[in-house]
Structures are given as C-alpha cells and as structure tokens.
Amino acid sequence: MKSRIPVVLLACGSFNPITNMHLRLFEVARDHLHQTAVPELKLLCGADILKTFQTPNLWKDAHIQEIVEKFGLVCVDRAGHDPKGYILGSPILQRHQDNIHLAREPVQNEISATYIRRALSQGQSVKYLLPDAVITYIKEHDLYTRNTGQERNEGQPSRGGPAPPPLPSSS
After folding, report:
1. Three-state secondary structure call for residue 9
2. What confidence tens digit (pLDDT) does each residue in 93-118 have?
3. Do residues 73 and 67 make contact, with C-beta atoms less than 8 angstroms apart?
4. H or E segment at 87?
5. Alpha carbon distance 38, 31 (integer Å)
6. DSSP states of 14-61
7. Residue with more model confidence, 92 or 112
8. How far apart are CA 116 and CA 19, in angstroms?
9. Can you say whether the dihedral through the CA atoms of 93, 94, 96, 102 is positive or negative?
10. pTM more than 0.85
11. pLDDT digit string (tens) for 51-80?
C-alpha cells in the first residue's frame, strides 16, 4: 500500500449544526490530496463557501489573496454550485487556480445545515443526517426548536447573539 503523506485541513463554514456531510468534506479532501500528493496546510471548504468569496464586503481581497497564494484550498463540490465558474469569475482565484484543488464528492447529497435547522424547528427527525452525539446535544440544549429562534443561524457569535454551550469533548 502506498504510504500516505501528512495532510492538515482547516475548514470554514457555519457547521450549524454539523452534519455527516460536513464530516465527509474532510474525507473527500484527504483522499483527493493523497491522490495528488500535496502535503501542505490547505483551507477546506464546500463550493458554497467558495461562492461567498464573490460576496461584496464579506471577505477582504487581501485575505482571499493570502489564503490562496500562501496556503491554497481544497473545495469540495456541492449540488447546485459551479466551483470552476466561481474561480473563473474572480481575478484573484483565477490567478492562483493552480493552488485550488477541486475535489468531487462521489455521493452527491443536498443535505445542508439550513435544511437540518428547518427540520428541527418543525419537529422532524434528523436521524442518520447528523451524528448521534450531535442530535443528543441539540435535544439536551433545546436548540433549533420553534421556541429558541435558532432555525436561521441565530445564536451564532458572528451574528451577534449568544453562542450555544460548547460541545462535550469526545474523550
């Protein structure tokens, strides 16, 4: 078996709540990097986050430049998105496209954290969409119910509200 190179991935996104597909991002990116033999620190994101690089006043051009020039990124495909188009539509991303790895998720899934929050706020089951420990945590802390107002990312520190309690450690 071919020896594996070390890979360090730094992810961004709301992960609110974290879904199995969020966890899949790491697996897909790692497999892609192992196949291309690129042992470096990379920013990991879904195509939806790559699209936000074009949102006015959300990212500073200097920050995008630093990310893609110094570190690069791995972007995992997501249904309904065009990561190649996002790269071609951005002069900064286009200039550094050799440092942007597009990884294809072989099992397309349209599950999003937004869908999960909506389902929970309507009292629907999210079993098999989230890790069991996350479902337990959400129930214990009464998150994303109609009464908490968290079905639209409210409660996120970056949005001005109080943060939910921290997740328990896995050890």
Report:
1. strand
2. 999 999 999 988 777 767 778 888 88
3. yes
4. helix 83-88
5. 11
6. --TT--HHHHHHHHHHHHHHHHHT--SEEEEEEHHHHHHTTSTTTS-H
7. 92
8. 8
9. positive
10. no
11. 999 998 999 999 999 999 988 898 988 878
